[in-house]
Amino acid sequence: MSIRPRYPEPAVLIRCPRHRRLVFGFELARVATTTGYGTVADLLRLLVVPAFGYAAYHDIRTRRVDGRLWAPLVVIGLVALLLDFSRVGLTSFTGEQLLVRTGVSLGLVGSLGYLFWRLGAFGGADAKAIMTLSLCFPVSPSYLLPFGTVPEVRATLGVFSLTILTNTVLAGLAYPLVLAAGNAVRGRLAPPMFIGRPVRVDAVAGTYGSLLETPDGFTRRGLDLDALRMYLRWRGTTLSAARDDPGRFRDPDSVPTPGERGDPTSGSVAEGDPVADGGPTADDAPQGATPRAPPAPCVPTTDTPATPAVHRVDEWGAATFLDDVGYAYGTTPADLRAGLELLTEPDRDRVWVSPGIPFVVPMFVGLLVALTLGDVLFALVNGL
User: Quick one: pLDDT at residue 312?
Assistant: First the structure.
């Protein structure tokens, strides 16, 4: 490879076979690839990697991603695209390839992220991450390293964001197998071993995920633990207090008045008052107060034919809570009641919880694999 320093391209590490030594220089031409796009844009795109690593770390720790992260990445993607188009032009064959692949990336991959968010399959951060990748990586980048050029495997279509997405799906499919293997090694053999793990009840209030149990048995759609934290903060109490005196908290008359209700927050562990311990307990009830039993159902007599057959009691104040906060991750009053009944069972010390899989985490893994190995699915299909 010839070196022409008069072109201010970024410094790269080049192995000189004639002198068998490493030298630093400036790359004259584009690294030999099928795309033919400039190296400056590809190096700029590498800034996306640490940003996604940061997002994945916080998604694991808090199940939250700072929304301010995406705007700078969008700027990076736009600048990289402008550098690509300014290098190859719009009228050349390479420019037409770039234009088509960018359109497919934004129109297909970016639209999928938005569509899945609208359908409720993705959170807002997941959708923004996919749409950001569709802008930042519309085509396959190339990086010259001492041992060769990466990525190694490139799909024929050449839409790199689609490669990242397929790698992400494969990484997500491997997660249940890893989870099941860990449970099996620890002797946790139960139906939800592929999607969950047992957690101590006293640690549930500080855990992210959703319950995989109800008082009637296992379920795939149990109470979201973010919604549980919202409820406990709204009531100004802790889970331990509810376990100490479930009868009192079950009574709908024990629900705080509107002026006494706390801020439910978004349900994050780190946001708002702690709900695992340190809050008010049943001992904080006024002196001489006794727990009140729920009122008996009102069954109509022949003298009151217009009265409903059963007067439904809002146990735990679940319906009042949801009416007040408006939305709690799709939780229904029945979901909340079932979760509270399960967690306040006196003899229960552990419950199965699905930790879920923050989608930004496998997306970060898919991005790393795509930038090094390339398109895993394309390699598997070719191997078969």
Answer: 55
Non-local (6+) Cβ contacts of 95 within 8 A are 85, 88, 89
Amino acid of residue 36: G
pLDDT digits (tens, 9 = 90+) for 312-343: 589 999 999 999 999 898 899 999 999 999 99
CATH architecture of 34-174+360-383: Up-down Bundle (1.20)
Rounded distance between C-alpha atoms, residue 15 and residue 107, angstroms: 40
CA distances from 151 to 72, 103, 144, 248, 338 (A): 25, 22, 9, 61, 50
The reported pLDDT for the residue numbered 71 is 96
Strands (E), the chain: 11-16, 21-26, 143-145, 148-150, 197-200, 210-211, 213-214, 217-218, 350-354
Instruction: Kindly state the tokens that stand for 161.
Output: 């964001």
pLDDT at position 277 is 54
Q: Which long-range contacts (CB under 8 A, 24 or more apart) does 63-72 make?
A: 63/208, 63/226, 63/268, 63/356, 63/358, 64/125, 64/266, 64/268, 65/125, 65/129, 65/360, 67/124, 67/125, 67/128, 70/128, 70/129, 70/132
Task: Average the pLDDT over 272-296 and give the result.
Answer: 46
- Spell out the domain ranges in the chain: 1-30, 34-174+360-383, 196-354
Check whether 27 has a pLDDT greater than 80. no
What is the token pair recorded at 206? Answer: 């500080």
Q: Which amino acid is at 13?
A: L
Sheet harboring 210-211: ordered strands across?
Answer: 197-200, 350-354, 210-211
Average pLDDT over residues 194-203: 93
